């Protein structure tokens, strides 16, 4: 039983439901950001980020910074690519457009490789594109929150290493870290950026990044200085290294309560093998997808191999919009999200299945949501005379 | 009585002690950032920021963004000044050096007007500097957390309007907003940037800004696009306007729990006249400064008119360092901060007196701290044979 105030179950693709202990960490009493107790908690949190990414290479560097997940794009765009250099942006939904806009703000040339809605660029297209010009970075949205499309970052990285080995592989893992398999070292990734409020199960307000030694080296060999101050790797790296070495350090005040909450959530997550966590998210996702099919509904993500395990984007029956269905779900104590992809936003809804709603056997969130969805659809169709 | 776990009293110049209700808001259950309930809370919070700044002009625009106070510098440097333009940076401690570094990161020319440690540039020097070349912005650290020096932002703004009326007046109010008098409209300020964790009494993790209509106009007439993405006014302004008009909107996920805490804290602060809040901070500061003098100690801020009401930076007796005194204070349940100004960091300590420690009559934090300081100094001198 949760000790939280009664509330509808939040099953959007982030923020997600919290574990009680995580939420209790948010109300930690006032603490100096350079006190020995907090330095220890922050340092341990950074080490837990390594475990989250299954990374053991000392050359890899975790970052935990006050900000939204979006800030991670600025970190990449202002540090790992320079004005006039090329970025290949794999497009599987809304978030690639935004990442490209961020890259161009800092002067990079972003070339988008787009797939039809619900699909992803093919491996052949990616290989072909990489051969056409030299790309400093390639960006991949691991799970695009607007479409629920999953990218195969392992396979894409293999292609990059074969065809364009110097290109840095940058993964936007905002909607994947903590539930989709990521083996940072083994897959030879260069950057994974994420946020606290999705499958990590912490409240929003933390930008979390993991950088490879190769990415750090590339940063150090920049010809021009980094073009951001708050998002500067040069400003943050000594801070992260000092805290992890149990030394206080100051660049900007860290959000102490959020760091406590992240410490609690990562301690819980990494207490079990990551493979087990990925498996239970995959099983739950399969169950959701089967239920969606049983209801005669289609997903945005058309192919099984490109369907995220963190969420499902569901086309509504013809004639229904999110406004016909979401209030009816809410009446049943379940919160889903409306569509986000501009071209088809009114035609679909999004169901997030991550974190405690999936892993805590004492909760019944997913089954409750499936039942609620069935009832809400029936109700909405009747109301519309469909 | 506080319902918080027992802990030493945090009297550093931020973060500060929290009110129970503020801290309880931090553990608000999971909520969608676009739900009607949260949209209302965020919208009201923005309106409360206007009250905090005693601003009623519809052309002024509040911002509440996930990030540290430092992020406010990037907002200024990437939006309100362009490459090659001049910024006059009034230097009263560590934070002017950092703000200047941020401005230069984005290509501005920062000219620092420096005063000796503990002093501030004179009005004559400022007037002279403004006449020497055209400055797009002038930056003033209202209270420099490293020195406890207070600047007279009202008077400086009068000089700017007389001598260089187009120059935007940018106030770094991280250590002043919520305890030092600020009349945003009446004083004709253009930007005040601050953070949640100082006199506002909220946990760290929010960058808070107020921009004048003049600043917004100047932004809109930029010749080049803004040079940041996460810190872009263009990206955030529609979001803030929509939320304040009770409409959900998305650019990056707001830190919902921190916004609740800020809502609670600003509701408490603005429930009483701001003048009363400024007065009680001034009275408490006077009491602290008198006690410091009674102990035979000097402040870094040499002149009464340039001594902050939020904090006191105190020179230690010759032969003592912070390491001799801070542990002894901690033993007595009081946490002060070490020195921060590089040149003299080992020669002084900092005592923050803001927020509930000052305004809550049920607390005895300040008197306890004064007694503890007296005892700790005696103990430290004895230990050193002084």
Automatic annotation (TrEMBL), chains A, B:
Q: Which GO terms describe its cellular component?
A: peroxisome
Query: A biological process (GO) annotation for this entry?
Result: glycine biosynthetic process, by transamination of glyoxylate
What SUPFAM superfamilies does the record point to? Answer: PLP-dependent transferases
Keywords annotated in UniProt: Aminotransferase, Pyridoxal phosphate, Transferase
Q: Any idea which residues bear N6-(pyridoxal phosphate)lysine here?
A: 198
Top-rank EC class of the record's enzyme? transferase
Which Enzyme Commission numbers does its entry carry?
2.6.1.44
Presence of keyword Mitochondrion: no
Q: Extract the GO molecular function terms from the UniProt entry.
A: alanine-glyoxylate transaminase activity; L-serine-pyruvate transaminase activity
Name all Aminotransferase class V domain ranges: 28-341
Q: Where does substrate bind?
A: 350
Its cofactor is:
pyridoxal 5'-phosphate
Q: Which InterPro entries match?
A: Aminotrans_V_dom, Aminotrans_V_PyrdxlP_BS, PyrdxlP-dep_Trfase, PyrdxlP-dep_Trfase_major, PyrdxlP-dep_Trfase_small, SP_NH2Trfase/AEP_transaminase
**Family that this chain belongs to:** Belongs to the class-V pyridoxal-phosphate-dependent aminotransferase family.
Q: What is this protein called?
A: alanine--glyoxylate transaminase
Q: What organism, scientifically named, is this protein from? A: Aspergillus fumigatus (strain ATCC MYA-4609 / CBS 101355 / FGSC A1100 / Af293) (Neosartorya fumigata)
């Amino acid at each position: 039983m949760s000790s939280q105030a009664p509330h509808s179950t939040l099953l959007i693709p982030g923020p997600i439901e919290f574990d009680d202990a995580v939420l209790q960490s948010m109300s930690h009493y006032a603490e100096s950001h350079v006190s020995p107790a907090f330095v220890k908690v922050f340092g341990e949190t950074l080490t837990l980020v390594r475990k989250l990414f299954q990374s053991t290479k000392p050359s890899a560097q975790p970052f935990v910074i006050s900000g939204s997940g979006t800030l991670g794009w600025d970190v990449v765009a202002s540090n790992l690519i320079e004005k006039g250099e090329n970025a290949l942006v794999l497009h599987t939904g809304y978030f690639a457009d935004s990442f490209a806009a961020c890259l161009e703000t800092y002067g990079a040339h972003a070339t988008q490789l787009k797939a039809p809605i619900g699909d992803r660029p093919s491996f052949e297209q990616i290989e072909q594109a990489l051969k056409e010009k030299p790309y400093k970075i390639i960006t991949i949205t691991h799970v695009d929150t607007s479409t629920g499309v999953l990218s195969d970052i392992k396979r894409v990285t293999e292609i990059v290493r074969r065809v364009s080995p110097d290109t840095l592989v940058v993964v936007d893992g905002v909607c994947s870290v903590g539930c989709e398999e990521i083996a940072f070292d083994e897959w030879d990734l260069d950057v994974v950026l994420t946020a606290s409020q999705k499958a990590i199960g912490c409240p929003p307000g933390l930008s979390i990044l993991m950088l490879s030694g190769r990415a750090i080296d590339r940063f150090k060999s920049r010809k021009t200085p980094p073009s951001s101050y708050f998002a500067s790797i040069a400003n943050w790296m000594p801070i992260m290294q000092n805290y992890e070495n149990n030394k206080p350090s100051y660049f900007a005040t860290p959000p102490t309560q959020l760091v406590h909450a992240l410490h609690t959530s990562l301690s819980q997550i990494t207490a079990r093998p990551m493979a087990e966590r990925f498996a239970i998210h995959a099983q739950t996702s399969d169950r959701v997808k089967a239920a969606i099919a049983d209801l005669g509904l289609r997903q945005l993500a058309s192919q099984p191999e490109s369907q995220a395990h963190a969420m499902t984007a569901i086309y509504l029956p013809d004639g229904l919009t999110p406004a016909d269905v979401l209030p009816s779900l809410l009446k049943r104590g379940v919160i889903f999200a409306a569509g986000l992809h501009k071209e088809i936003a009114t035609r679909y809804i999004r169901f997030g299945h991550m974190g405690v709603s999936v892993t805590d056997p004492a909760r019944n969130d997913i089954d409750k949501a499936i039942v609620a969805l069935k009832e809400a659809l029936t109700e909405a169709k009747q109301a519309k005379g469909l």
